[in-house]
Amino acid sequence: NNRTYSSLPDVNETLILYKNFFVHGWYDIISGMTQEKAIQIWIGGAADALDTCDKLFISKKYHHALFFLHLALEKIIKARYIFNLDESPPYIHNLKQIIAMAKIKTTDEELKQLDEISEFNVSARYDDYKYEIYKRATAEYTGKWIKIGQKLYEKYKQSLAWQAGKQSLAWQAG
Known about the structure:
mainly alpha, 2 strands, disordered C terminus, two-stranded antiparallel ribbon, about 170 residues
C-alpha cells in the first residue's frame, strides 16, 4: 500500500467507517448481538416478568404484581420496537409513548388501558405514589388489570410472531 500518513482518514472519518462497517443500528456485529437475539432477550424478560406478576398476585402482593405487569408489557412492546425500527428502544417507561414511537397500531381503548398500566411503574418506584397504588391495589382491582394486561401482552406477542413469520425470519417469538 502506497498510502502516506497524510492520506489516512481522520478520526471522524474512521469512526464513521467503523460504525458503517461493524455496527448496524444499535447492535454490534463484533459482540455477536443481532436484532434476532436482542428481540429474544426482551421476549424472555417479558415472559419472566409476567410469571413474576402471577406469583406476586397469588402471594397477595398486589401492588408489586401490578409493577411486574407493567414491566412485562414494557418488555414485549420494546421487543416489537426493536423488530419494527431495528434500533435500541428508548429508556422510557410510558407504554403509550413507546407504542407510538414503535408505530404499533392500537385502539383508543387500548391506549387508555396502557395509560393506566403505566401508572403502576411510577407508583412502585416513588413513595408518594406508592401509597396511592397500594390503596387501589385490592385483589379485585389487581385481578382486573392483570386480565387486561395479559390480553394486551398476548396481542403484542402474537403480532410479533406473525410479523416474524411474515418477514421469513428463522425465529419465532415465544
